Amino acid sequence: MQLPSKSRLIWQAIYPVLIFVGVQFVVTIVAIIGWVVYYTLNAPLDSLDIDKFVEELVRWTTENTLAITFVFQIISLIPLWLIWRGMRKWIPQYQKNPGTALIAASCAASCIGLTLLVGILLSFVDVGESYALLEEALSSGSVVIQFLALAIGAPIVEELCFRGIVLNRLLLWNRPWVAVLVQAAMFGLVHMNLVQGLYAFAVGAVFGYLYVRYRKLWLCIVGHFAFNLPNVIVGLIEDMGVELTLYALLIPGVLLLAVGAFFLMRCPAAVPVMRGAGCGMQNAASTEAEVALPGSDGRGE
After folding, report:
1. Separation of alpha carbons 245 and 251, rounded Å
2. Would you report the helix, strand and coil content of the chain in percent, each value rounded to 5?
3. Could you report how far apart the first and last alpha carbons of the chain are, in Å?
């Protein structure tokens, strides 16, 4: 298939991310302006205290971060889904994998274990004030809004954008390992926080590899859901006054990650659907070469 110019290919990989960030920015600004208007209309001008105003704005923004995030996720889903639907006609098709259930279960288990271990690791690191404020914002609001924004909205919208659209477009003209790392770097950058961006890069690389190996976007969504859900559950348990010890998270984390990764890597990679006969062993071999990311010469179609 004839590829567009290099500059156009770069733009096609970048502009979905700009939509993602732009919608988030606009929704946040509109929400803040709405609160400012409401506050000023209900506060006497002669008694308006700037310090108190700023304090109230910070408090309101922190408490409603997830609600604002969920609104942005719903809005951004529309243009991203339209882009994805238009791409489906040229994305290579792959045969149905007989081990789908095992792949999904292994992916979920390993991602739950991974997020538990990341949480433990961060407890030993000085994450700084900005990340502490972010954690406070992400644990604010009701359990329902935390579940909707972190466990439902984020997996669907972020995987659709970065693994569904960006990664597939990068695979058109890059080696798989390059495409995986580039989209992971973009995924880390949009989090706009150093600590969160670093582990988002690592997680984005894992999900990118899973997509290249198994060619199922829903598998990345399941993994992202499994990665985010424990944060909601742990926060709920701690709010109930139950103190979780290090070993209460460490042992399950290691076991889930090890067992999940073991079975995940034993599952067969996706095999492309090709016209004509004689595609069995040759196709399987070419797919295995394609998903061997380090040093692979395979390119997406």
Report:
1. 11
2. 75, 0, 20
3. 8
